[in-house]
Design a protein that fits this description.
heterodimer; A: alpha/beta; about 45% helix; globular; B: alpha+beta; about 55% helix
Chain lengths: ~130, ~270
């Protein structure tokens, strides 16, 4: 079953990679190049799996999640961090109820696809 | 006579008082120097942590499309020579990925704050051995419920790496046995394989950074940092690691020591 995915990452090569992999696997992918673009997409109605980069200029991944939560926009979405760094535990503690999982960069195709499909199932079960 | 004696004592007292004040002044100056040096060290560690974080991001981000999409490209190639070239490139990228991961992990270790919790190592070993049972005679002879105190993720990494080495240097059909138990306030875990064994030189250098026991072997993905990381992680947990072998062809034993969990049950 196709899963709607929003990839939020300031790096064009990462957005291209994720879009290519997930589209080939049959899922629908939207791209956002910043935290602000992510907020705009979700306000415009995106509901699905949000793959969120951590280190971005302007609003970073954590701040974007805080902003989504403040506007009540987490509901209907599942957030999965896409990260190349080991984050301090205290930062993750403040938002751990809002993040369901994380994928470390660089990732293998199978890992990304299975994670997205697993989270997609959670979305469906959350709606039922 | 008494007055003279009293005057002498008072003079000595004044001398001692002066010496004491000089010592106190010197002490205050030394404390100020120590405080300044401590702040400098803290600043340097913070700078190093930031550097490692940014370096990690900037190395791993461009690796993302390479690691993810090269296998896809390889899957679409049928021509044998091109496929062979891509296989070499994919192996190289795998090595670079492993090296970046481990080098950053090593650089980050001083800043990592281990979690202190009871960990059931018998259960962990069962998990880790499960994937090797088809190709090796594996046996976990640790007492059930044997528990240590430490960071679960770090301990799992260390045990996984040592087991990966045992597998990597043991021919299929060989044996890997895990024994151990409590010894005073410590737990010892001994992982013994029937593999190619080690020379005294190899054992002596095994924990050196970038040292590979057999550089002639084609083991791309072996960076020579794994055991260095294991020893430092264990050091952070109050643990130890050592190796022994009766020589080439006679297998290797790795002994890991960790503080015992007081109440015994790790899970």
């Amino acid at each position: 079953m196709p899963v709607p995915v929003l990839i939020v990452d300031d790096e064009p090569m990462v957005r291209f990679t994720v879009e290519k992999i997930l589209t080939q696997a049959g899922h629908g992918v939207q791209c956002a190049d910043s935290g602000v673009a992510c907020l705009e997409a979700v306000r415009a109605g995106f509901r699905g799996v949000i793959l969120m980069d951590v280190m971005m200029p302007g609003l970073d991944g954590w701040e974007t999640i805080d902003a989504l939560a403040a506007e009540g926009l987490i509901e209907g979405n599942v957030v999965c961090m896409l990260t190349a760094v080991r984050e301090p535990e205290e930062r993750m503690e403040t938002v751990k109820e809002l993040i369901l999982d994380y994928v470390r960069k660089p990732f293998q195709v199978a890992e990304l696809v299975s994670k997205v499909e697993e989270l997609g199932l959670l979305l469906i079960s959350g709606r039922e | 006579m008494q007055d003279q004696r009293l005057a002498e004592l008072e003079a000595r007292n004044r001398t001692l008082d002066k010496a004491l004040r000089r010592l106190e002044t010197r002490n205050r100056r030394l404390e100020a120097v120590v405080e300044e040096r401590t702040l400098q060290v803290d600043r340097l560690l913070a700078q190093q942590s930031t550097l490692v974080k940014h370096l990690g991001h900037d190395l791993k981000t461009p690796l993302t499309p390479v690691v993810a999409m090269l296998p896809l490209v390889r899957g679409a190639v049928e021509e044998a020579e091109t496929a062979e070239m891509l296989d070499v490139v994919i192996d190289s990228v795998g090595y670079i990925h492993a090296l970046v991961d481990q080098a950053l992990e090593l650089a980050d270790l001083p800043q990592m704050e281990p979690v202190t919790e009871p960990v059931d190592v018998c259960h962990l070993i069962d998990d880790l051995l499960a994937s090797h049972g088809d190709r090796y005679a594996v046996e976990n002879r640790l007492p059930a419920g044997l528990a240590v105190v430490g960071d679960r993720l770090m301990i799992r990494k260390v045990l996984a790496h040592v087991l990966d080495n045992a597998v990597g240097f043991t021919a299929e059909g060989g044996s890997i046995e895990v024994t151990g138990g409590e010894s005073g306030r410590r737990v010892e875990i001994v992982i013994t394989d029937s593999g190619i064994g080690m020379t005294e030189e190899q054992i002596r250098r095994a924990f050196d950074e970038f040292y590979k026991a057999d550089p002639a072997r084609n083991r791309l993905g072996s960076t020579g940092l794994g055991l260095t990381i294991c020893r430092r992680m264990l050091g952070n947990l109050g643990g130890t690691i050592s190796m022994a072998s009766s020589g080439l062809g006679h297998g290797t034993s790795v002994t890991i020591g960790l503080p015992v969990a007081e109440d015994g049950n790790g899970d």
